[in-house]
Amino acid sequence: MNLPTSLRFLRNGLFALSVAFAATVATAAPSPIFDAHLHYSHDAWEQLPPKAAIAILRKAGLVAAMVSSSSDDGTQKLYKEAPDLVIPVLRPYRTRGELSTWVNDPSIITHLEARLKANKYAALGEYHVYGADADLPVMRRVVELARDNKLYLHSHSDADAIERQFKQDPQARILWAHSGFDAPEKVREMLRKYKNLWCDLAFRSDHAQSGKVEPGWRAAFLEFPDRFMVGSDTFTPERWHFVVEHANWSRQWLADLPKDVAERIAYKNGVTLFSGMVKR
To answer: Where are the domains of the chain?
Structure first.
């Protein structure tokens, strides 16, 4: 059938628009992710140079990444490479071997104080402390340093150690690493109790399966949409090759939440709290 010229132009125009729209959808940038839990320690930078590491973060579609390392030199390498992307966090550990000994080592404080004078950070951590060890002198000084320098604390701890840190400084601002590996009901209890407590979901998969959010965690996310952030936790060099996959996996389960809640957890909470550290 021969169409009038005007209709042929209309048909061809609509077809061109549909092709352009499909191409736009296919090439659209992935939804943004703020990664609140990354490490770039000495064994990582030996295998993955800074430029390659930053390329992975950009490929994952990250708007910002909180990075700490053992030693802090790794964090500084990445921050120098991409100050628009990396948010530096100061870890107490000079080497990986200090993870279980640092709370009994006063020289850690000298190290932290020197780094704080030399560089700018958003937080102290991620550090590991449990139970009554949070009341040891080294940990108490870390809480004081965070208060005096207006820094967040990134604490890999049980609930008891979190409680003890807030007793030392009721105004402390704590990012609870891995949400304490605790049950969502306990996490909600802690969030109700402490208004300056936030949680990352790094190295956890119990909150979502097959793109669906687990009911207990859904209740937590809906009650506290402004208190959670995602994180990939590159605690070994091999996990750097999981960053893109983790970001995409996060986008899948976040899509199971109301859009405003998903956007807060994906990136808005992190940007609200920490983007002052990112050079634009």
So the answer is: 1-30, 32-277
